[in-house]
């Protein structure tokens, strides 16, 4: 077994110790992912013909928003005009409706209140054009992130279709996921049944192929996509959204190692109690480790790059997603902070200063 355990990493000579994943700031990584999402959307919109739609939704199966569906829909009409609709409170269940501050944020971004734009119904409306695709993409991105609370574009699902709901093939919109894959989960058994696992193993086992390419072959296979469609950030990390977890995969050349890591908890205050807890949990983990750097708790599982085994990387990714789902709630309850996306971190929970309570606007907005 070539997965490095918590004990084995401690026994390695100094030259092979891993740098912390936190050398790349998490906030910068997330910001860059949103920038790439907005750029991809801006590039897509001018290429669409009249009658095309782009529907983008915060995945409720990952965000824990249940029956609340936060979405933005864009439609290309005549003469390059693009009309956009953003969900309003009339379409949201009680407990998930936006408060006055969030509604004000939507209006400040340029959205008209429900009913103002013709045929907008209960949704906020916006009228733009293909020539202003960059500005429209920025507004949509900020709406999804800042108002609806999407923590990362990988938590979005999208569908591009025509008037008859026939899908339109397009390039990926950043790390957002194409809607048909919303229910797909990472599973070694499923991949084996599909016959793609053996092919990925064969490709990844070829020592002539660079380690980075072998790793991306495995990740693409698990994500049921292609290597070209993987989203790689400026640090060279491949991001994977699995359930409520964000997992990053980084390839290192010297020594050849693959680091699978995930931000478990952010904006947490480092204390002696926290360090003791992380040490105890690490000692009980069969592989990997937990640690705190700055204000973020990370989980990390290194995999050896020499004699690289695809199954070991797949196992590391699956273990990491399980750890993230299990530990973020436990640590959040004990030490506070913010989960990457959890039940206590739902969109737009702002309180209105005027009322002093969690008053939310009525059904009109």
Automatic annotation (TrEMBL):
Which segments cross the bilayer? none
Signal peptide range in chain numbering? none
Can you give the residue ranges of the TY-Chap N-terminal domain?
Answer: 32-156
Q: Which InterPro entries match?
A: TY-Chap_M (IPR054343), TY-Chap_N (IPR054344)
Kindly give the Pfam families that the UniProt entry links to this protein: TY-Chap1, TY-Chap3
Q: Superkingdom, according to UniProt?
A: Bacteria
The UniProt record lists the TY-Chap central domain at 211-342
Q: Which residue stretches belong to region Disordered?
A: 338-365
Name the chain's protein. YbjN domain-containing protein
**What is this organism's lineage?**
Bacteria, Bacillati, Actinomycetota, Actinomycetes, Micromonosporales
């Amino acid at each position: 077994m070539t997965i490095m355990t918590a004990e084995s990493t401690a026994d390695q000579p100094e030259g092979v110790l891993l740098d912390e994943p936190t050398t790349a700031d998490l906030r910068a990584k997330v910001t860059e992912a949103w920038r790439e999402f907005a750029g991809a959307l801006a590039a897509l919109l001018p290429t669409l013909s009249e009658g095309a739609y782009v529907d983008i939704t915060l995945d409720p199966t990952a965000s824990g928003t249940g029956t609340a569906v936060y979405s933005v829909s864009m439609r290309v009409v005549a003469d390059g005009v693009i009309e956009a609709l953003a969900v309003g409170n009339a379409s949201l269940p009680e407990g998930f409706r936006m408060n006055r501050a969030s509604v004000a944020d939507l209006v400040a971004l340029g959205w008209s209140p429900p009913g103002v734009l013709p045929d907008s119904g209960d949704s906020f409306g916006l009228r733009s054009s293909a020539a202003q695709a960059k500005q429209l993409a920025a507004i949509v991105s900020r709406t999804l992130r800042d108002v609806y609370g999407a923590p990362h574009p990988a938590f979005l699902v999208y569908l591009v279709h025509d008037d008859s709901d026939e899908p339109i093939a397009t390039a990926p919109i950043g790390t957002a996921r194409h809607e048909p894959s919303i229910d797909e989960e990472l599973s070694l058994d499923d991949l084996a049944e599909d016959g793609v696992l053996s092919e990925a193993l064969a490709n990844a086992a070829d020592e002539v192929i660079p380690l980075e390419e072998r790793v991306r072959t495995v990740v693409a296979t698990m994500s049921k996509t292609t290597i070209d469609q993987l989203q790689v950030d400026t640090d060279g990390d491949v991001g994977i959204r699995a359930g409520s977890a964000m997992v990053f995969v980084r390839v290192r050349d010297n020594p050849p190692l693959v680091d699978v890591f995930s931000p478990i908890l952010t904006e947490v205050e480092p204390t002696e109690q926290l360090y003791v807890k992380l040490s105890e949990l690490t000692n009980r983990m069969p592989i990997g480790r937990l640690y705190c750097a700055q204000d973020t708790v990370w989980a990390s599982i290194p995999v050896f790059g020499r004699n690289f085994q695809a199954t070991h990387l797949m196992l590391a990714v699956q273990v990491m997603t399980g750890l993230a789902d299990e530990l973020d709630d436990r640590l959040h309850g004990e030490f506070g902070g913010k989960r990457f996306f959890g039940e206590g971190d739902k969109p737009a929970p702002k309180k209105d200063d005027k009322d002093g309570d969690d008053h939310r606007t009525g059904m009109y907005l």
